[in-house]
Amino acid sequence: MGIISILTHSFTDGYNREFSRVFGGGLERYILDLCSVIRGLGHIPEVHQLSYFEAFQTRTEQIDVYGYDYDMNNVPEAFDRMAAAARGPIIYASCLWQPIHYKPGSLGICHGINWDRPGLPLDTKRQVAEHIQLALDGLVRIVSVDSHFQTFCRAACTYADSEQIMLIPNAVDTSYFIPAPPRRTLAQQHEQAWLEAWKQDTALQTESADLIIPASEDAAGDSHAETESSNLQENAPVNDQHAIRIGDSNAHFSDKEEAAGLTVHPDLEYTDDKPSASRAIRILYPRRISSERGIIPMMLAADKLLGAFPNVEIEFAGELVEGSTVGRAFRYWQRTHPHTARIRQHTYDFRDIRDAYHQADIAVIPTLFSEGTSYACLEAMSCGLPVIASNVGGLNDLIQDGFNGLLIPPGEQALTAALIRLVQDRAERERLGIYARETALSYDLSIWKSRWSRVLEAFLTETGIKEGIRT
What we know:
Elements: E1 3-8, E2 12-13, E3 18-22, H1 26-40, E4 44-51, E5 56-60, E6 63-69, H2 75-85, E7 90-92, E8 106-110, H3 122-138, E9 139-144, H4 147-156, E10 165-167, H5 186-205, H6 217-235, E11 245-246, H7 255-262, E12 269-270, E13 281-285, H8 295-308, E14 312-316, H9 325-336, E15 343-345, H10 353-358, E16 362-365, H11 375-382, E17 387-390, H12 395-398, E18 406-408, H13 412-424, H14 426-440, H15 445-462
Parallel strand pairs: 1-4, 1-7, 4-6, 7-8, 8-9, 9-10, 11-12, 13-14, 13-16, 14-15, 16-17, 17-18
Antiparallel strand pairs: 2-3, 5-6
Helix pairs in contact: 1-15, 8-13, 11-14
């Protein structure tokens, strides 16, 4: 038994100074699962990471974690200090686009590329290619979580061994992230609550008198039938030519959007937030609240959806860095929004996020850049949700447009149109969700662990230290 060190930029929460808590992002989830594989092989994982604040040492999830303060303009220097302090074989689990001096015989992981922004200067992109070449020259093998990085290296770099870059997509525990059981509508819940109250009331009456059936029983039954009929009409698929007229002055469609099919039916108008008889349709954004994850297009799309559909609510279920520019903007938007009652933000633990998927009807992954094979996308698919994802990075490996989700170009207009399409078409939501679940099964966590076990065993053999790792 020996130690294997993982060097990364984030594991525990160095953003909010909560050093003993694992940050709720995809990279952090990946490292947690990788540590589990390392322990399964009889070794001890430890993590070395950057800290936005002071250096620290902590222990969480049975893992020793060491944080390093650093100069944001000199990340490689911090990785040099990490490598000098690390024990045993080293896995570089991020920042491969930096000019790092890799310790010979080390393994690397690319969690998705972050230089895929169209507006990034060409000189910067050329420089990144040079830094990736350093990684290819300095690491014995690089594991990529999506085909995006693999294709980039083949196009922009040179290397002799075709197996030096190994594709192991991210994974999901399909036995845990399962579809939610059927849910009753609000009308059904209200009817059940009314019946329970009525039973209690009549039970009290029978203590002193015979049970008297209320004369309004038949009327209640008829009312129930009418309510259910109304629910069926409200939940039935809506013709694509029909939408809604926005009564909220804070949400308007442009002429271009109307020409694209987002026009509204002249006979329908909603002007308040009164709940409809049917259960609300919940849209879930299960991502970090950050610019690269598409939070701005999501907020703009939310403005229009909330104004147009009084039975829509939106949950933002991801980490938020308090005090950041994006974090402050989101808090202000949520607090002052005219439909703030239908906007929810909650940060879930890895083990609790399934609850958010089970309460949702649609999941949205509107990434602008820097995306691998998204854990959130896989989890939503495994829970049988229809997913709207932008065609960025590894999302192209997961979503087949129109089969198991909707794949759109990044941006607010396409996102809004896709959301309206699914909000109005329950049948399509259900169909996409069924095939999303089927797709997720091929990304099961057990497959990922098996593949990583083989990679680690080969890595330790190649470095000549499988028996008795140096500490």
